[in-house]
Amino acid sequence: EVQLVESGGGSVQAGGSLRLSCVASGLTHARFDMSWYRQAPGKEREFVSVIGADGGTLYAGSVKGRFTISRDNGQNTVYLQMNSLKPEDTAMYYCRITTYWGQGTQVTVS
User: Fold this and answer.
1) Helix, strand, coil % over all residues of the chain, rounded to 5
2) I want to staple 50 with a disulfide (CB 3.0 to 4.6 A). Which of 27, 28, 35, 36 is the partner?
3) 24-40 burial, b for 16+ CB within 10 Å, e for fewer?
């Protein structure tokens, strides 16, 4: 059974930082792209960032320069370092591998 478990969310003031983690089990994590998405109340889920199996990265324009995605294949984990947080970053953050999604971790910026 494939499971993705996110953690690291919380409440911070604008300008603060958080580091999200997503641990994958049940699949060979290193073979796949790993992505972060977010969904704010009343809005559709949107792409945040992806890191390829080769380590290549891509970011949404709204987070580029502030967020950094990374992965540790030995730990089956993908991270999202979020700096200079803004109130508009408030959302539930989800990780994704192929068709699998985690349960999400809430980020609130005031």
Assistant:
1) 10, 50, 40
2) 35
3) beebebeebbbbbbbee
Query: Contact, 48 vs 40, CB < 8 A?
Result: no
Say how far apart CA 25 and CA 87 lie, in whole Å.
Answer: 32
Positive or negative CA dihedral for 106, 62, 35, 76? negative
Report the pLDDT averaged over residues 23-29: 84
pLDDT tens digits, 2-13: 999 999 999 999
Beta bridge partners of 21: 7, 79
Within a 10 A sphere around the Cβ of 64, how many other Cβ atoms? 11
For residues 29-56, give the mean pLDDT: 93
CB within 8 Å of 59: residues ≥ 6 apart: 48, 49, 67, 69
The dihedrals phi and psi of 52, each to the nearest 5 degrees, come to: -80, 170
SS3 74: helix
